[in-house]
Specification:
This is Co-chaperone DjlA N-terminal domain-containing protein. It comes from Pseudoalteromonas luteoviolacea H33. This protein is an all-alpha fold and 152 residues long. It contains eight helices and no strands.
Length: 152
């Protein structure tokens, strides 16, 4: 019994104190995955949207986009919070680019044809962490609804 406890405790000692850094595409993917997971329903349309957006905005092949999406899902499952991913996005984008990121998050939220209140909350929270003004947050939402042809 004591040996099992020692093995268990040693496992914690061998884990790195700081998680490995993530690249921009993975961080962006992680934020989109968080929006997708917010309603506790991983819709196939949302997954397709994430891989499509990663391809378009990070210049990735379809295979690499799928790999990044899978890696992002794993990292979000293991993460305590999202600050690690938000920091990478904030450090690598301008104010205008962060507004575009919010639009991408809205695209994921609306991908399944409905907006769950938890998805709305998650995009709102991420917009705050990315220092996107409330007016820009609302404008991004309306812009995406217009592009997708959704009613106001």
């Amino acid at each position: 019994m004591l040996e099992r406890i020692k093995l268990f405790l040693n496992k914690f000692d061998s884990q790195p104190e700081h998680p490995a850094p993530v690249d921009f595409a993975t961080a962006l993917g992680a934020l989109m995955v968080e929006v997708m997971r917010a309603d506790n329903d991983i819709a196939p349309d949302e997954l397709k949207m994430i891989t499509k957006l990663l391809q378009q905005h990070c210049q990735l092949s379809a295979d690499n986009s799928d790999l990044i999406c899978s890696k992002a899902q794993q990292l979000v499952n293991e993460a305590i919070d999202l600050h690690r991913f938000v920091k990478v996005v904030n450090d690598n984008t301008s104010e205008e680019a962060r507004i575009e990121v919010i639009e991408l998050l809205w695209m994921v939220a609306f991908a399944d044809g409905k907006l769950d209140p938890q998805e709305d909350y998650t995009v709102r929270k991420l917009a705050g962490l990315m220092y996107v003004a409330h007016g820009d947050f609302i404008a991004a939402k309306l812009n995406v609804k217009n592009v997708l042809g959704l009613p106001d």
